[in-house]
Amino acid sequence: MKIAELVECSRAAQRVIAGYSQEKIDALVRMFAKVVYDNADPLAKLAAEESRMGVYEDKITKNKGKARLLWHGLKGKKSVGILEYDEAAGIVLVAKPMGVVGAATPCTNPIVTPMCNAMFAVKGGNSIIVAPHPRSKKCALRLKELYDAELDRLGVPKDVFLVIGEPTIELSVELMKSVDVVIATGGAAMVKSAYSSGRPSFGVGPGNVQGLVDTDVDVEEAAKRMIQSRIFDNGIICSSTQTIIASKKNYKAVIEAFAKNGAYYIDESAQVDAFRKALFPKGQINKDSVGQPVGAIARLAGLEIPAGTRAIILAPGKYGRGEELSREKMCPVMCAYQYDTWEEAVDIAHANLLCEGAGHSVDIQSNNKGHVEYAALRLPVSRILVNQTCTSMNGGAFQNSLSPTTTLGCGSWGNNSISENLSYFHLFNKSRIAYVKPNWNQPADSDIWG
Fold first, then answer.
1. What gap in Å lies between CA 92 and CA 84, rounded to an integer?
2. Residue 129: in which H helix or E strand, if any?
3. What is the mean pLDDT of residues 423-427?
4. Nearest residue to 105 via CA among 182, 7, 206, 15
5. In what order do the strands lie in the sheet with 82-86?
6. Helix 137-154 crosses helix 22-38 at what angle (to 10 degrees)?
7. Which helix (H) or strand (E) element contains residue 100?
8. What is the pLDDT of residue 189?
């Protein structure tokens, strides 16, 4: 089916659901999550096989966890009709659908990203067309099959969720120019295409999450959280912690804590250089390293690592621009740096973020509120996650109040339109009824200028 035909079918379905009650919309939104939850295992298996990256068991966890979290976060939230009366201000907010949402989705998250985008789109009374990465088209089409069966059961037009069956860059770009609003979760080129489409667009920026370890934390617990953040799904999640920035006072203890959790530390310059060349040949990330297990990464570098290794920690010595290992590494490899003062720790993180990942996030392990806020005031990031497992909690979690999502806006630093987690409220328009404020009065000039 041509893009114009897909959009026409999607628009017809959208006109139908635009008239649904909040209750029926929510039943539809719940279905998108429950289908993935109930089919988490086979969908994870398909994702691992088709994308050839990541960890099958982690994908099951991701499918179930995101489905559960997203529905819990959306349940009970109003998105249809009159949203809010502000009697004191004389303002009434009214929700209006945007229309047809076009969503470019990545092979790193081939199940939960289409699911999430569909939930957000339909919550606002929109329909959605998914343009999957070519290495995830089977996943998208399988989701379509599962959703179609439930849409039939619910009496909802199946065209409310459509998929480009044979995706190409050209078709994705055409889709973006044809819909009413775009979500682009993928590489920089795809995000740039979204913002060049002439349509309202929500994109993401590259990750390069800096991990700062304060001197007042339980290093064993911090290491457990940070290494889990690094190795989950073989490190392909944009919120994976990339570095360990630890104090010289307890650096050895921090590295030993990581070693107890399966990390293998390398500070010999020739070996570090072997990984540098393997991961970034000619200055670009090696596609053969993305989402691959730690043993395969070691083989790319021509080195042997101990059996049972879960992650590799490199000590490159240098950081920031000019050091390729300061960039995002989409595999189970971290870099370690030492600082004298907390200010220096923040400077190291800042330099690495300017190399890549500005706007995304930092992972801070600290109990010092002053240190956390010092970093938050100085680092160009949208999220500062404290004493949590970044890869699984940065996109929202039951433990924090970040909006559950799979699309993490990176603000102007990352060339994005939002500096927060994308959510359902970004995908509907709001009309404002403006009444005369009760008991209004015009202030005197002396009050205005005084």
1. 6
2. strand 127-132
3. 97
4. 182
5. 82-86, 91-97, 428-434
6. 130
7. strand 100-105
8. 80
Residues 6+ apart with CB under 8 A from 130: 103, 105, 114, 117, 118, 140, 161, 162, 163, 164
Residue 45 CA from chain centroid, whole number:
21
Mean confidence (pLDDT) of the chain: 96
pLDDT bin (cut points 50, 70, 90) of residue 4 is very high
Domains of the chain, with CATH numbers?
A: 3-204+415-434 (3.40.605.10), 210-392 (3.40.309.10)
Estimate to the nearest angstrom the gap between the alpha carbon of 185 and the chain centroid: 8
CA distances from 205 to 186, 189, 237, 362 (A): 8, 11, 12, 14
DSSP 274-304: HHHHHHSGGGS--GGGTT--HHHHHHHTT--
DSSP β-ladder status, 243-247 and 263-266? unpaired
Give the pLDDT confidence of 170-179 residue by residue, as tens digits.
999 999 999 9
- List the one residue out of 112, 86, 83, 109 whose CA is nearest residue 96: 83
Residue 355 CB partners (closer than 8 Å, separation 6+): 208, 320, 321, 323, 326, 327
Which residues are catalytically annotated? Answer: 238
Contact 89, 424 (CB under 8 A): no
CA-to-CA separations, 182 to 10, 66, 194, 203, in angstroms, rounded: 14, 21, 6, 8
Helix axes of 251-260 and 219-231: crossing angle, nearest 10 degrees:
60
DSSP state of 333: E
CB 163 within 8 A of CB 171: no
- Is 282's pLDDT higher than 90? no
**Single pTM value for the model:** 0.95
Q: What is the DSSP string of 8-66?
A: HHHHHHHHHHTT--HHHHHHHHHHHHHHHHHTHHHHHHHHHHHH--S-HHHHHHHHHHH
Distance CA(1)–CA(370), nearest Å, equals 57
- Listed in sequence order, the residues at least 6 apart from 314 whose beta carbon sits closer than 8 Å to its beta carbon are 266, 267, 272, 275, 325, 333, 334, 335, 336
Q: Locate tokens 């081939």: which residue? A: 110
Give the tens place of pLDDT for each residue, 335-386.
999 999 999 999 999 999 999 999 999 999 999 999 999 999 999 999 999 9
The residue ranges of DSSP E strands in 248-405, in sequence order, are: 263-266, 311-314, 333-339, 359-365, 381-386
Place of tokens 């989402």: 291
Look up residue 64 and give its amino acid.
K
